[in-house]
Give the backbone structure.
Amino acid sequence: MKRRICLLVLISVLTAGAFPPPAAAAAEERFPAVRVYEGQFRDVSDSDWYYENIKALYELGLVNGQEDGAFGPEDNMSVAEVVTMAARLRSLYEEGDSEAGPARCGGGSWYQPYVSYLQSLDVIAQEFEGNYSRAVTRGEMAHILSRTLPRELFVPVNRDVVLAGHSNRNYITDVGRDTPYWEDILLLYQWGILSGVDGTGSFLPGKAIPRCQVAAMVTRLVYSDMRIQLSWDYAFAYGRTGTSLADLVYSDGSFYPAPMPDELREIDADVRYMLSRGERTVSLSYPAGTLNSGQVSQLMEVFLDTARLYVEQTYNNILCSYSVRSGRVTMTFSSSLYGDDLIDSYREATMQYAIEVHDTMWADGLITPVMSDYDKARVYFDWICGQCRYDYDCDDNSMSHSGYNVFAVGLAVCDGYTAAYNLLLKLEGISCTTISTESHIWTIATLDGVEYHIDTTWGDWTEPAAYRYFAMTEAEALARFA
């Protein structure tokens, strides 16, 4: 018998990038110290937070300080100085000598060999022409440093927390798509090179940057043990506490007061309007004397079929009152599984179960911000198939037709499987609906812009899950279930 997976206990996965790959470890071996720091900079004390960074830069031969024996830790750096440091670092990596590469690119001002060397490697282009003598901005510095060494050397140890925090505008709020070099900036956060200047990771991309901060960033490029593991709380980015079933249905506010039975788009808009408002009644108004009982029956059938497309909403029954004389029609949706006095409590309980599963998936790292819709949908496919088993003794009024039963009992039939699965997908913002035959119902979901058919019921036929029922084409699904 298949072992049920506990709702609250999910398999944990190791955080990607917890250890540097062999390439990163090998890269550090290419940065041997070429001299010993013995207090050469008179304005750098071993009690300063940046002492180890400046010491490392000196020993690597990347900085020499100023003529008066100072390093100038709080002084701004020029574009030329950052380019020079970056060129020396790249030359040290490529050739074991910080000056060998630039030495082959002579000519012009003192910094021109370093500029030409980085340009020959496509680290920079012409973006700084005419501006090498001015103070470098923090954004420009990030642009240069993010391209100084081959990117495959770096592990994005903070990828998930940075993408989640930034995309929800809770962290690094001063960096957006209109910020110059914004992608380079975020990359350095992901690599553990940057952490920001305050508790929300602000970067101040347009400000000048002191030499001590540049020293810290460059040494983090070289030594993985100096990189920063961000501990930002991004529960806000994935938590769905407080989300209601109404929140999962989009409506642009359109409502059509007198749709005809063949006007499916208008009827769908009316159903979505109702569901998005947390209601279960639709009131229509037709010209007096224009409706007959046959048309009302057709309307009821189409409205109910439309509501069933939103299977996670639980409505599978409809009652109608109408007046031919006045043209007023009122349809109230309900569920054959619950009485009117219990339907709201069961709907709320189902939602809370789904939120608990969703949030636990994120907390345990089974779902992450960088995953595609396809990958997220597969994770939930696995969960449903592991959590539930098919109820062969189900009758028409059994709770096994509900998503509630999937979460609370782990026993369901196809409409229960599909309701629970669609609910989890919609909590992820994945657009989905249902399709059905006389005897079966399953999911249609749009994953990364592609429409797929997914059947968790038949996916649960084997252990592990039968993936031939995940991400089917329409032709594959209809061939199996029609």
About this structure: Residues 343-363 form the longest helix (21 residues). The first strand starts at residue 281 and ends at 285. The radius of gyration is 31 Å.
